[in-house]
Structures are given as structure tokens and as C-alpha cells.
């Protein structure tokens, strides 16, 4: 759950770019589903114990912002009233970490392990199948912790609010839960006193997993050292070694101080009645609490004092056997404006886009194209989610001998920008992206807003002013018009002449893992050596006590739950029209798209040769980044971003809903634009399809090196997905193709291409792919548009311009897959923890057993796997899912015990046989399935199930009905049919990604990437 890295939360970073570029024991059933118009709240009014401080329309987002303060506790409340059914709620606390023991992170976990009103072990996890939430999580940032959820169901929303608020204000904070979630000493086999004592714990293992990622290590070191005198010098998620120093009593005391209502901030968004929110919070929690003003002021983060000269630092990182020889990192980071200075923050965000993004950016030209670095590192860019904002230029895939040259190049580039400025078209392109992002609607719009705003709320910023983006945009345009050198002056002020600059470098140390492992062993040895017999007995006794607690039947009856009857039988049908435009099949759907046109095209690739197909993802990556007949690649990039929200090419493998082993092989082309730019959007597409020149070997080499670097550096953060992909590829043909297109096979292929001397031959193959697919011979299109849109006319012009004549759509074809038996593969990589997976062949979407398998995997995840793999053995995550093609997939994430987990997967069928399944258990598992099915879909994506996979509304409604009708007998039958030992022997697979695993049998294939 620790999402907010010191490099900036991935979520925050993503959504920030999208915006510049989410009654006592009150009966929720009694709450009316009123939707209170914003004008019912007036400034100065008192509503349910809150004082209305501000009511402001935000026309940019078609919403009204309402700011309130609780009169008694001074807790602040921020509501965004918008006609959106996907309602969001969060409670947040300012939680500067006092050290690197992971106190705030472990407290976040512990608070969700039971409360006064809900004394249930891990109510958070149990609500995953008692709710229709569209999002549930808890997140720890560098100086804040917040607890967000979203739901479209009114009763569900207030059920979750009750659980979340009781969790943060009245948690049980049991010591046994601290041992489970944080860290503990325990025998390797908890029931065997003769086995070695080791360290265990969910967060302990989670953070060990984090340090398997060099980007994480580098980002932490940067943050800790550029702001070294306040809380940012600490690892808020916890340094694994320091976690072992965290005391339970210290955590409890920290909660008393920091989780006080006076130190809280509330956020809500959507169309549910605000007065109901206020009434619930006030009557159940705030009205009973005494105010404590010191509580808020004592958590204030003091701004970092500006240095008078630059500092330099070198740190060690992990050696990566998959990466090239050049594995060093370098970053030049600057402390910039305080986050409360919104104008400066806005300008620095613009500068981040201008200086770093795309082939026209000066740092891209001088650092990436010159080969000084393979790619920008994840720390690169402008970071405004902490009080002292940072601007960082970072590179990965660097030769350590080039450090000085890189520093000189950065300074020279800044000097050039200060002297020459930016082209007007570059600035216009960035501003166009901002304008388009304001109109683009995502399914989690309220959550995106929350992720963006929480850091600013945390530091008492005027977030209402922050939301007035048009005001800031007009202010910016005025400034650059009045002062053409305004941006150059800001580059000089914040980057070139700024004395608060940190130059940090990192190089691989081959013994990095061994050193950390030895430190942990030394700590363990020292602690055990100081224990007397009584203390050693206590370690054993604590382990037994925790295991008994973990194995107690959960008393989940006190938790609120929706009923299956609360789930609609029918769906909101999507009206689509099918027509031929220049003979090309086209799906049209009129939607409230807010003035944005969404276009997609599927182009068949099934006729490509087996030699070319593995290169399709590389073709997709480079196609929109190369030159054309009329534009060089820099001009083309500018043209794309001046006219569209970007043009993406992706591999599309559309699984058959009915036929095993059948799927469609294609490219999916996607883009969107403002309606007034429809003509330009299709002109740009025409330029790509008709005139792209795949001949520039230097440009191609740069792109391949960048892609290779990014893929390799992303493995540790998605290890379970790679393990699942490999395992599924061994039992299912479409999964095999997906693994070739995006799994570890693809990473290895791109790595080999990047290191190859035959890049010109590869580029010729890419040209051949282009000749096969950049036409309308086997194409179909889709438009999601407003009623008045002229997009169909412009689509017709585009199709007329594209070569070829429509012939046919081969669609989904059946593939021969003659594989049987059990396959086991271990991929050895230098990670301190494992990622495991097991796959078993299932059935396609419309098969009668598919829904039963979906319900079964939900049941196994919540009732079995999370308990056995996460709670008992300390893995960060575990579960079971059914893929779209019907593969039954088990997985674990950041797992210290690979073989034990695989054995747990194997025992799933036996667990079900030994377990009495109640009607409530069955309903909860079904709710978990409906949670996926009923996830909100934005207007621009409606109808895509039909367009991409042939899933009609009739099919989806039948699927819903089938889910509701699943019985206990169905669950037991499919478990016996597909998960029994006999079934696994027919066709199944096991995969481990991680360190060398001892005791593997001769039936395992070992792929050692360090050889």
C-alpha cells in the first residue's frame, strides 16, 4: 500500500501530468440519496457542526468547491460537488516520519487491522468482497498518510466511510498485528522450535522488495540528501534494516498524536449529498473529541534552508544482470519554489515539459540523443508534491566515466536555453496538452483530483485557488507576452544560478545484495545472542500465539455488506451504430465527450511471418517517433502534440469469448483530440500511415536503447506480472503470444537488439512490418463523439488517403497448442524476495464454467491465499484471478517463501473441500466479481468491449445473470475439475522470479540471468 515513493508517488506524478498535460451508530440505509446543489451551502453558514468557509464555482471542471471547518476540532473539510456518480472520500493526516523505521507506513497498515466498531482482523481486505467499491486503498507519502475510497453505490459508500473513519480514529492497534504487519522474530517453521529464528513481517518484506529496484534506491538517496534537515531525510516507507528498530509503543504514541481530528483533513467528491457526510462524521467522531490546536502546529514541516553552494554525493546500487555494461545513474536536482507559490509551481511544471519531454526538448537532444544516457531516470522532472519542490535532470544507463561530461552538458544546455529561449510552437504544444487534459474525462476523475490535491492540502495550501487552472493559464500567457524572456529568467533563477543543487551519482556494486544480507544476519545474530532462555521461549510462544490468531475463524459478521440483490440485473446499454466508411467497418457511438473526439483503429497482423511478429511491439514503440516524408521526427512530435492527446500504437490480442485457443492478432491505434482539431488529427494520422520513413538508423538506435533501459528498470516493480505472464504462456496460446509481446521474453529480446551489431537488419524488418500494416486492407475503426461532431467526415478523408482496399477482417482464429503436463521454470534475478505464479488452463468467457471460476478465485483470494501467503508468511500480496482467455492464475508479490507459496497454491482445491461454504461467503465472492464488471467507464471508452472483443451488451447481461446464479455446487465442481492434482498434472505451470531457490527438483528449468 506504500504507493508514495520519495521520487513522487507514481499515481501523483501520472495524474499531475494529466492535469497539466482523481447519528451515533448511523444506519446507512437511513441516509437519503439526496444530491444537494452547491448553492444550499452559503459562506458563514453552520451545517452539522461545520462552518462553511468558502463556496466557489470551478468552471474548468464543471464543479463547485466547498471548503468547511469543523467548529469544535478545527478539522478541515474540502468537498468538490460534481455530477459524477463515482463518488470519492478520503481522510488524511500530516505524518512527518521521525526516523526511517517505517513508523508511518506500518501505522497505515496497522490501523486497518481492526477497530472499536469493527473488531475484525483486517476489515480492509474483507471489505474487498463485501463492497462494490471502485477503489479502496491506503497510502503513505513522504509527510502524509491518507485513506481513500470510491464507490457508485450510496449505501456502500457510507459503509466504507464508517469503516475507514473507525479505522483511523479508533483502531485497536494490537501488538500481534504489529508483529504481522511490521516485523517480528519467529522460527522459520513457526511450529518447530528447532528451526532457525529469522525476521518476518509484511512491511519488512515489502521494503526489501523496494530495494531490489535501483530507481527506488536512487530516488530515496536523492530525496534524503537534497532536503537533509527535515523529515525528508528519512525513508517514510521504512528502510528494512531500520524497521527492525521500530518499537510497538512508539507507534501507538505516534498514532495518539498524529491521528487526532485536529490534524485531519477530509475530502469528498461527486454527487452524493454533502450534508449526509458532515452529519455522519460529526455525530460519530468529531463531536466527541476535544480540540487540540497544538496537534496540527506540531506537525508542520519547516522549509529547508537554502544552501550557499552545490553538494555532490555518490551511492552504491545493485548490479543488474539484464542491463548493459553502463548501469550508472546521475541526477542534478534543485530545490525550487515552495509549493504554496502556485504561479511559480505552474511555471516550473511548464518548464519541466519544455526542457525534458519529447525529442524537441533540449535535454533530450543533448543527453539522450548523444548517448550520454540511455534514458531519463524516474526521478526526472518537476516534483511539486512536497513542500520544497524539486526540479531534477536524471539519467540512467550511464557510463560512470561520463559523469563530469554529463554535468558540463547540463550546464551548457541551461546556458543555451537562457540565451536562446524556446520556440513559440513548443510552448503552444504544452499549452494545448493542458487544454485537452482539462476536457478529457477519465473513469477515476475524482480520484485523480484527490491524488493531485492531497499533498497541497497537507501543507494548508489554498487548493481552491489551485483548481482555477484557467486563471493561472491566462496569467502565464500574459507574462510571457509582456516579457518574452520570462521563461529564460526562470530557468536561470531555479536551475542555472540556484546554489541549492545536489549532484548525485550511483554505480552498481556487485556485492550490494550480499552486504545487505550480511548486515541483516549480523543484527539477527546479535539480538539472538543477547536473549536468555526465557526470551527465546517468548519468541516461540509469540509465533504460536500469532499463528493461532491468524487461524481463528474471522468474525466478519459485524462488517457491513451489500447484498447480491443490491446489484442491478441490467446494465446501462451503450448505443452503437455500425457502418462502412470507404468499405472499412466503423463503429460510431454518440457520447457526452465534453468536446473531445476519441478514435481507434484495429489493423490485423495475423499474416505477418513468425519471424516478424515478435518485433511488432518494437514497431509500435518507434512508429510515431520517426520522421516522415514531410516532417523530421522533431516536427512530427510537435505536430502530434499540437493536434492530439498523443497517438499510440499497441499490440492487440483479442481473446475469443467462445472458442478455446482462438484470438485476434492486431495493432490498436488510439488517439483523441479537441473537436475543433478533428481535421488536424486525421491529417496527422494520414501522414503517419502514408509517409512514415523507417530509415533513420541513428534515431532508431536511440529509441531502442531507451526502450531497453526502461524495460529492464521496470522488472522489479512488476515482478508478479512477469511471473504470471510466463506461467500463463506455458498453458495457453494467446498468453504465449502476450508474453512474447510484453513479458520477460520481450525484455530479453529488446536487450539483445540494443546490444546487437545488426540494428540495420532489425530496422529493415520494422520497415517490412510497416508495409504490411499501414493500409486499410484489414482495418476497422471506432469513433466516440458528440452528437454534433464532424469526425466521421474527416475519418472518411483519412481512409481515402490511406493505401489499399478493404478486403476482410480475419478476426479470431484458432491456434494449435500441443502442450501437456507440468512445466516449472525459475528465473534467477538478484532480488531479495520472490515473485511466484502458477497457471492452470481454464475455459473462455462464455463457457458455463467461466463465471464459477471467477467466483472461486475471488473466494480463494480473500478466504485462503491472503491469510496463508500474506498474513502467515509475510508476502506483500497474493491472489488468484482468471484471465480474459480463461487461464486460472495464482500469484504472490514480494514473497520470502517461494516453494511454500507454490505448495499453498496446490492445496487450494483441498482447502475448499475442507471448508464449509456459507451463503454469505458465496455472495461476497460474487460481489468481488461484480466490482470488476461494474467499474465506471468514461464516455470515450464506452462500447470498446464490443469493438475490441466482440462482447455485446447481451453477452455482458447474460454474464451478470450467470454470476448471480452460481451455486456452491458449481464452485466445488469447477475446483475439482480444474484445480485438483489430477487436473494440474494434465496441464499446469509454475514460475518463480527472484534469488536462487534451494531445494528445486530436477523437474525445474533454471534460467540464470546472471550467467
UniProtKB/TrEMBL annotation:
Main location: mitochondrion
Family: Belongs to the peptidase M16 family. PreP subfamily.
Record carries keyword Metal-binding: yes
Location(s) in or outside the cell: Mitochondrion
Keyword terms of this UniProt record: Hydrolase, Metal-binding, Metalloprotease, Mitochondrion, Protease, Transit peptide, Zinc
GO cellular component: mitochondrial matrix
Name recorded for this polypeptide: Presequence protease, mitochondrial
GO MF annotation list: metal ion binding; metalloendopeptidase activity
Cofactor requirement: Zn(2+)
Classification of source organism: Eukaryota, Metazoa, Ecdysozoa, Arthropoda, Hexapoda
SUPFAM superfamilies xref list: LuxS/MPP-like metallohydrolase
Any Gene Ontology biological process: protein processing
PANTHER family hit by this protein: PRESEQUENCE PROTEASE, PRESEQUENCE PROTEASE, MITOCHONDRIAL
